[in-house]
Amino acid sequence: MHGIYINALSEHGWIGLALFLTVAGCSWINCFLLIKKSRGRPGLAWANLLGRMGQAALVGYWAGGAFLSQTYLDEYWCVIFILDAARRVVAREIARIAGFPPPRHRCACARLRRGSAPLRFPNPIYGPVEAFS
């Protein structure tokens, strides 16, 4: 067997490899955002450490994965989910501190279908997000 990249390419084709690398890139961005948004905030020091640990774990997996075939290693995917959940917790905490309302978990598509005005979602990590009808 080959490494994780050749394995993803041979099992899922170019689209599967692109998706695999996209997930990897998004997890790196999650780590970067954890580090950036928690810097200088004593209450979020855990997130800074988690982001740095996540980067080290990702680099280790990507480097080792070039030689080992562990594309579907459970621990890798668990680390990715933990990093994404931590980014969401940090975003919610920053929004709470800044006075933004907590994010709603409702589908905004129903309002868009009725022809209402564009929706604005406050997001302290990525900036304001607009949805147009």
Secondary structure layout:
Elements: H1 4-38, H2 45-65, H3 74-98, H4 109-113, E1 119-121, E2 129-131
Antiparallel strand pairs: 1-2
Features:
single chain, 133 residues, mainly alpha, 2 domains, two-stranded antiparallel sheet, 2 strands, 65% helix
Helix content: 55-70%
* Discrete helix count: 4
Largest sheet at a glance?
2 strands, antiparallel
Number of strands: 2
Provide the domain count.
2
Shape: elongated
Question: Radius of gyration from the CA trace?
Answer: 18 Å
- Low-confidence region ranges: none
Q: Calculate the mean pLDDT score and round it.
A: 80
Distance between the termini: 49 Å
Instruction: Tell me the structural class.
Output: mainly alpha
What is the chain-wise order of helices and strands? HHHHEE
Beta content comes to under 5%
Account of the 3D structure:
The chain has 133 residues and is mainly alpha-helical. The protein has 2 domains: 4-102; 103-133, no CATH class. The chain has helices at 4-38, 45-65, 74-98, 109-113, and strands spanning 119-121, 129-131. A two-stranded antiparallel ribbon has the order 1-2. Strand 1 (119-121) and strand 2 (129-131) form a beta hairpin. Helix 1 (4-38) packs antiparallel against helix 2, helix 1 (4-38) runs parallel beside helix 3 (74-98) and helix 2 runs antiparallel to helix 3 (74-98). It starts with a helix and ends with a strand.
